[in-house]
Amino acid sequence: MTALSALIRRDIRIALRVGGGALIGVLFFLTVVVLMPFAVGPDLALLSRLGPAILWLGALLASLLTLDRLFMADHEDGSLDLITMSRTPLELACAAKALAHWLAAGLPLIVATPVLGLLLNLDMVATGAVALTLLAGTPALTFTGMIGAALAVTLHRGGLLMAVLVLPLSIPVLIFGVAASQAVIVGPMTFGAPFSILCALSLISLVVGPFAAAASLKHGLD
Amino acid sequence: MTLIDLANPTRFLALTARLLPWLAAATIILLAIGLYQSASAPDDYQQGATVKIMFIHVPNAWLSMFVWGVMSIASLGTLVWRHPLADVAAKAAAPIGAAFTFLALLTGSLWGRPMWGTYWEWDARLTSVLILFLMYLGLMALWRAVDEPSRAARAAAVLTLVGAINLPIIKFSVDWWNTLHQPASVMRMGGSSLDRSFLIPLLVMAIAFTLLFVTLHLAAMRNEILRRRVRSLQMMQASRVAFSSDVGTGSHEANASKEVGAA
Fold first, then answer.
1. How many Å apart are CA A180 and CA A202, to the nearest integer?
2. N or C: which end of chain A has fewer CB within 10 A?
């Protein structure tokens, strides 16, 4: 347990310090959301209708782009080999790393959501709904994305290939995340059903992600 | 003959060389029977002649999932049993599965135009099959991106097993969500709701398409094995040539070509 908490603390500290790049994700999120009004035009009614979708898409892309860092830096300086060889099960270590990554890169996205909601003309309730769905949904993005990150580090290929592999897996999260937020804003569906499925997706990825990532690291690293 | 006997690629090649003509003949005969029966099946009282798209659409859709299932089993073979031909099987199946999935989507949208009034509808069944198609393409991209087959094989195996979660979602999407796509009518509790005049051609076509997949898959596996042999021979030759130019004598080259011939 101490090993895992040490790992989490180390990863968060590295991510937040110079060269960590966790906060670049938030900056990217902000930039993508600011780009959208230029693409669709500054029509406030249209923006507030598209708002949840824009925020979700921005959060999805931001969490995808920061995933590169999850194993790559550790692989470069050799600490990934130490983690693989340590007595802690690799699945647990992967889960701890993903949790740390989510705390450092995923949580700031949710904190930034209210500010970005103002830019998109969302009211309080809508912003709250989007933030809540992001809180429930972004762990799924991180934990499924971890599979892609593990594959990328074993194949020495990142970037586009990882995006192509991970994005189809994150489509269900996007569907139910946006559906739950839209249910609050326009109805007529209830908020509960899509939101429960979103939570279920997060829980499933919490189980599947670490095992798949650990399997990929175990079989792929040399 | 067990599965482990086939671990020797030469034995596998010899066996499939004998098997493939029979499989191909059976596929052609069954496809001919199935197509004839589909063409002579009666028109539906509501859908008219367009109901015959079903005889192509349903086997393609069924195979799009079946091929991923085959790839998942092959991936288990790669990761758990380290069967030497498992990754060949997984790699060879991916483009075939992608083709079946594409045809299922294409025939489905051609069928949807007259029936639903639209080529495409974002309902649960269509979306999940589209995700399946994207994952096939992603897997193929993965195989192409990495030049070392064994390394790519293990990564692809992990990804295939993760993607297998999508299969039950596709199968049950029409039951879980109330969608435009009709619910299952052939395989369900309490027997098929399809009339016999439609059911029999459909089953013949399903068997014919499955045989078609087996034939194509075995042929593709043969090609992949031969391609890998050519590749390793080329690598060997290249290293010999590099070595001989290093030393600067011609005798090595003669030796090299002799050894390559023996290999």
1. 14
2. C
CA-to-CA distance for B180 and A46, rounded, in angstroms?
Answer: 28
A127 in reach of chain B (CB within 8 A) = no
Q: Encode chain A (222 residues) as per-residue pLDDT tens digits.
A: 688 898 899 888 888 887 667 778 888 889 988 888 888 887 888 888 888 888 999 999 888 888 877 888 888 888 888 888 888 888 999 999 999 989 988 888 898 898 888 888 888 888 888 899 999 999 999 999 999 888 888 887 767 888 888 888 888 888 888 888 888 877 667 778 888 888 999 999 999 999 999 988 888 776
Q: Which amino acid is at A106?
A: G
A117: number of CA atoms within 13 Å, CB side? Answer: 20
The pTM of the full predicted model, rounded to 2 decimals, is 0.83
B188 falls in which pLDDT band (50, 70, 90)?
Answer: low
- Quick one: pLDDT at residue B261? 44
Locate A220 and state its tokens: 């792929």
Query: Measured between alpha carbons, how far is B142 from B149 in angstroms, rounded to an integer?
Result: 11
State the Cα–Cα distance between residues A170 and A35, nearest whole angstrom. Answer: 22
Taking the C-alpha atoms of residue A119 and residue A46, their distance in angstroms, rounded to an integer, is 13
- Provide DSSP, B64-89: HHHHHHHHHHHHHIIIII--TTHHHH
Nearest one of B126, B111, B117 to B48, comparing CA atoms: B111
Q: Give how far B74 is from chain A: nearest CA, Å.
A: 16
Quote the pLDDT of residue B179. 62
Residues 6 or more apart whose CB falls under 8 angstroms from that of B105 comprise B126, B129, B130, B133
**Cross-chain residue pair A212–B135, CB shorter than 8 Å:** no
Question: What residues form DSSP beta bridges with B48?
Answer: B44
Across the interface, of A169, A172, A220, the residue whose CB is closest to B155 is A220
